[in-house]
Amino acid sequence: MRFINREISWLSFNERVLQEAEDLNVPLLERLRFLGIFSSNLDEFFRVRVATLKRMMPLGKKAKKTIGDTPKKILSEIFNTVVTQQNRFNQIYQQLLQALEQENIFIINEKQLSPEQGAFVRNYFHREVRAALVPIMIDSIEEFPYLRDHAIYLAVHLSDSTGEHKAKYSIIEVPTDVVSRFLVLPKEGDKNSVILLDDIIRYCLDDVFYMFSFDTFKAAMVKMTRDAELDLLEDYTESFVGKVEKGLKQRKRGKPVRFIYDAAIDSDLLDYMLKRMHLKKGDDNIVAGARYHNFKDFVSFPSLGKMYLLYPQNERLLHPDLPVNKRMLPVIAQKDVLLHFPYHSFDYFIDFLREAAIDPKVSEIKITLYRLAKNSKVANSLINAVRNGKKVVVVMELQARFDEEHNIFWSDRLTEEGAHIIFGVQGLKVHSKICLITRKEKGKDVLYANVSTGNYNESTAKIYSDHSLFTADSKITNELEEMFTFFQNTYKVPEYKHLIVAPTYMRKRLEKLIDREIQAAKNGRLARIDIKLNNFADLAMVEKVLEAARAGVTVRMLIRGTCAIGAISDEVKKNIHIISIVDKFLEHSRIFVFYNEGKEAIYISSADWMMRNLNSRVEMALPIYDTNIRKEILEFLDIQFHDNVKARILDDQQQNYYLRNDKPPFRSQEEIYFYLKNKLEKSREIHESVLNKPVIEPVEL
């Protein structure tokens, strides 16, 4: 079988994002935002995956075992695919501009401003923008200035029409970190106009360079993407935090991976820029682009009050087992509770922490943290717990890519408050999401836990589809306690009966579960595996799943991103069904279901089936024992596998065809919301019928 290279498969996923921007059934401003998501994804792809391949170039053919081909060949295929996608991106953007104009929304540039608009823009420039600009006269300095990753710049050619003065060159960073990328101009009748910050600066270049005798300014946007790999030097005299901080400083000066420029740039200006940066025309990493870069900012494009051009906002659902303003721990003591984000509110988890913080019987809170929100309510709840006299133990993963500085900040804050911080496990990333609360009840310590497939992050919980389980089942909580003991004393690796933990046991346990289905199929019994993942790229696991399909096991897979399964035989194809769902929420939960002759083994997990997750991370798959929750997860998966609106078929051709059939349109993310809403309403009806039940008076004899 031919495997699909991980990077090429990922580009196919990003094409599915581009499909959302192209889909006429998606609200107009949401389509614009999907262009922003596509752009943001591609930036990170170059910073991480393309940079890694460039680092592997010296290995040549030796890299084939790891990545399936030579780095040079894969890079060539990547650049060809990216160019094709970028052309499609530009076409879609032009279509969206026309569609926006039909809604009286006009994205205009500096040459399209009316005199009144021009006066408004110039006033705004002096009030909000000018002080944030740092123009550098690059022809006056010996060393070319460092171009920051993630930043966008205007390269400027200054000249005068008389030719009396020698031309000058400047570069200006567009300060999108302190000034909004978009300015809404005063409305003219029904017409709404928006101008980008880049074009505001272009319009006011004469105010920037007023001290020179120039009257002609040519400006074009440029952008540098850099290698984002974090190198941690083996200096045993330095703390781990110090190593990460050093690595972050080195990342900021990472090697260039891609240089993009406006294709309409003045040729003299481009030649001058490339010469000064020691770059050559024709290199794969020098790319002619469109007028605007950093389209990620379009995720925040103003709605202009036209809410009908966005997806309708559904109210976050209450959970039937968790009444408002009622204590959570007594409920969890009686039964497990499963939350579905973003359909349910993340506030339940914050309430879980806050309740523990002020409960006099709670003595300790332990938690693993990977990615936190900017102004994290989770971290602040933990600080509140420390101030209330609780012992707080935080396993903080400092190597969560692009969140390292953020996590260092919060680890410092928590340490200052008195929390005990553990910086993961040497050589491994702690990627599992676990919280454990210890409470004294009847003289004994009772454990309450939360296990989540996604981060403890209230911001991403609004747009990521994840599962979060509350439990007081001692079979689970005792083993979670053993995990935290391991984090504190890594020399002793526990054995787990219920949890499936990587890197020590997960691969072997998953293989055994698959083998059990294979044996059942060989014995002529019903055998089935359902797998929901973000990424499926571990080649050994791919082989194992295909072995199961060959043996007659029915395999259903829902893979959001990368899928390494390539061309397969008709014999295998009839038993394996692979789809991907890309919709308004990012599919993020991982679920594994093994039929087990009708006694399904059901797990939720933080782990994708990739080599890094199974070999180099602390991951955990949690078994689901509660009967009602088991039923709920199976119904959740069935809803997703019946999607015929947003589901795409994944195959070796990577065509991303939409799954269509003769059934009525069925969009799983909407259907899940209605499914959970219906459960809530039924619960209320039962509750009200009990409250309204007439009291039967005793009859006197």
- Globally, the shape reads globular
- The total strand number stands at 26
- Spatial gap, N to C terminus: 84 Å
Query: How is the main sheet built?
Result: 9 strands, mixed
Q: What is the class of the largest domain in the CATH system?
A: Alpha Beta
Strand percentage: 15-25%
Oligomer: single chain
Q: State mean pLDDT (0 to 100 scale).
A: 91
Q: Structural class given helices, strands, pairing?
A: alpha/beta
> How many domains comprise the coordinates?
4
Q: Can you name the CATH architecture of the largest domain?
A: 2-Layer Sandwich
Radius of gyration: 28 Å
Topology (elements, then pairings):
Elements: H1 6-22, H2 28-55, H3 64-67, H4 71-102, E1 105-108, H5 115-129, E2 136-137, E3 152-159, E4 168-173, E5 182-184, E6 192-196, H6 197-203, H7 205-208, E7 216-226, H8 240-252, E8 256-262, H9 267-277, E9 286-289, H10 329-334, E10 337-341, H11 347-358, E11 362-369, H12 377-387, E12 391-396, H13 404-417, E13 420-422, E14 429-430, E15 433-441, E16 444-452, E17 464-471, H14 474-488, E18 500-502, H15 506-522, E19 528-533, H16 539-550, E20 554-559, H17 570-573, E21 576-581, E22 586-587, E23 590-594, E24 601-605, H18 611-615, E25 617-623, H19 627-641, E26 647-649, H20 668-691
Helix pairs in contact: 1-2, 1-4, 2-4, 11-12, 12-13, 15-16, 19-20
